[in-house]
Specification:
single chain, alpha+beta, four-stranded antiparallel β-sheet, three-stranded mixed β-sheet
Length: 130
């Protein structure tokens, strides 16, 4: 009986530890109808554990991506528009992004519905206006 109780407790702790949820990310601020929108959730330091998704950009309206099985808890969401479809955020010589991007840090993922809106910004343009 003790063995069954130990396995039951272990199974409960594993299922609680491994909780995940789907996350809907609405990407706004798309100015060019080209490339793909890349969305990822997780910790950049643990890139192999990040959850990602991409969607083709066919208009300048909003693009919706759904990330599946994102661990419940605090995380960061990263978004960029891959205009040239090389699957990376292009940067200039000073490591300033030259493709539209944005980050939403320390968001809370909970059981149930998770929906976030993120507006793309052109960091290079913003810096040049200063």
């Amino acid at each position: 009986m003790k063995i069954i109780g130990i396995f039951a407790a272990l199974g409960l702790s594993i299922s609680l530890y491994g909780q995940s949820a789907d996350v809907t990310v609405v990407v706004k601020g798309i100015k060019e109808a080209k490339g793909k929108v890349m969305v990822a959730a997780g910790d950049k330091a643990k890139s192999q554990e990040m959850i990602g998704e991409m969607a083709a950009v066919t208009s300048t309206g909003d693009v919706v991506c759904v990330l599946k099985n994102v661990p419940v808890g605090k995380t960061n969401i990263y978004v960029y528009q891959d205009l040239n479809e090389n699957f990376r955020l292009d940067m200039d010589e000073q490591h300033i992004p030259i493709e539209p991007c944005n980050t939403k840090e320390k968001v809370t993922i909970k059981d149930g519905e998770n929906k976030f809106e993120i507006k793309l910004i052109n960091v290079k343009e913003m810096m040049e206006k200063r």
